[in-house]
Design a protein that fits this description.
single chain; 228 residues; alpha/beta; Rossmann fold; Arc Repressor Mutant, subunit A; 2 domains; five-stranded parallel β-sheet; four-stranded antiparallel β-sheet
Length: 228
């Protein structure tokens, strides 16, 4: 079993879809429909990660996370939010969130983020997470790229940027998402650094000319593989 997840979400249909998907991946999922219920279930114990909506009745996700953090500084917290304001995102990280995902989101991306958080917090039993990118194989667990019989070791930052790109081939990933994944905040001072690491990833992937990382100006970056 991969781990125990507390999912706190007041949209019943979304909660069931997410829970079913996570259960199919081998996780045990406990549901709560608001922050107050989520807090009570959390203190019943034994969860490896908490996934919580921000806007909920009775107690919102921010307040619930604040109370969880006052008792447990280690459990990974992932926010689901329909809010687009970076101020709300920063507030979540200031409270102690480890990651966030904007609604609507791809279930596959949620799975990737859950795996990353569990791996970072000591889930040593998880299987290697691999992505096939053109002629490359990217092992996100070991942070290594393989092309033919040659392997390249990526830096931690390079790997953390490449993983959401590899999980969303052909789709734009917001620059803010990439910066928060690496530096835990969207800060204008990090944009040049992000572009520099994108340049390094382009060089690392240069052996397959069908692969590109496109700059979607004003939005983010897109990893593409031209198979024609």
């Amino acid at each position: 079993m991969n781990g125990k997840i507390l999912l706190v979400e007041d949209e019943a249909d979304l909660a069931m879809i997410v829970a079913d998907t996570l259960c199919q991946q081998g996780y045990t999922v406990t549901l709560a429909s608001n922050g107050d219920e989520g807090l009570h279930k959390f203190f019943e114990g034994g969860f490896d990660i908490v996934i919580a909506d921000v806007m909920m009745p009775k107690m919102d996700g921010f307040e619930m996370a604040k109370r969880i953090r006052s008792h447990n500084a280690a459990v990974p917290l992932l926010f689901l939010t329909a809010k687009s304001s970076i101020d709300d995102v920063e507030r979540g990280f200031d409270i102690g969130a480890n990651d966030y995902l904007r609604k609507p989101f791809e279930l596959r991306e949620l799975i990737v983020r859950v795996r990353c958080l569990l791996r970072q917090w000591g889930d040593s039993d998880s299987e290697d997470i691999k992505y096939h990118i053109g002629g490359y194989v990217f092992n996100a667990s070991t942070q290594r790229l393989q092309f033919n019989d040659v392997e390249f070791q990526l830096s931690n930052i390079e790997a953390r940027i490449l993983e959401p790109l590899a999980a969303n081939v052909g789709k734009t990933v917001d620059a803010s998402v990439l910066m928060i994944a690496v530096w835990q905040r969207d800060d204008p001072s990090n944009r040049n650094s992000l572009h520099g690491y994108i340049h390094k990833l382009r060089r690392a992937l240069r052996h397959d000319p069908s692969i590109s990382i496109l700059n979607q100006r004003g939005f983010g970056y897109m990893l593409t593989v031209n198979r024609s």
